[in-house]
Design goal:
- The structure is a single chain.
- The protein is an alpha+beta fold and 107 residues long.
- It has three helices and four strands; from the N terminus they run βαβββαα.
- It has a four-stranded mixed β-sheet, with helices on one face.
- Helix 1 (19-33) runs parallel beside helix 3.
- It is elongated and about 55 Å long.
């Protein structure tokens, strides 16, 4: 599988003042997980984080109708780091399970 050169892309609304939060989250993910991160301006009310093209957080879906109107909540840095920690643990668990299945077939 060939991935986008950026592991994580954060889309933010500049008019909403979300650029600093997007930058802080990118720096934290780079520091914690050595992920390549980039931030991109998006349209009004946006704050979305994608990991290899899969949405990890979307402000528009965080509060139902209010979120879709641009009044969703913006995650804390700690919340996003925890989301990625959970993704990493799930990925590691599935890798261990695949390895165990291959080993048992060979035996």
């Amino acid at each position: 599988i060939i991935h986008n050169p950026m592991d994580v892309t954060s889309y933010y609304c500049r008019l909403c003042g979300l650029e600093p939060r997007a930058e802080e989250i990118a720096e934290s993910l780079q520091r914690e997980y050595q992920l390549q991160c980039e931030t991109r301006q998006a349209f009004w009310g946006s704050f979305r984080i994608e990991h290899h093209g899969e949405i990890v957080f979307n402000r528009w879906t965080s509060r139902g109708l209010l979120g879709r109107l641009g009044f969703g909540r913006t995650p804390s840095i700690e919340e996003v780091v925890a989301l990625f920690r959970g993704r990493q643990q799930a990925q590691n668990s599935s890798s261990v399970a695949r390895s165990a299945a291959k080993t048992s077939r060979r035996g």
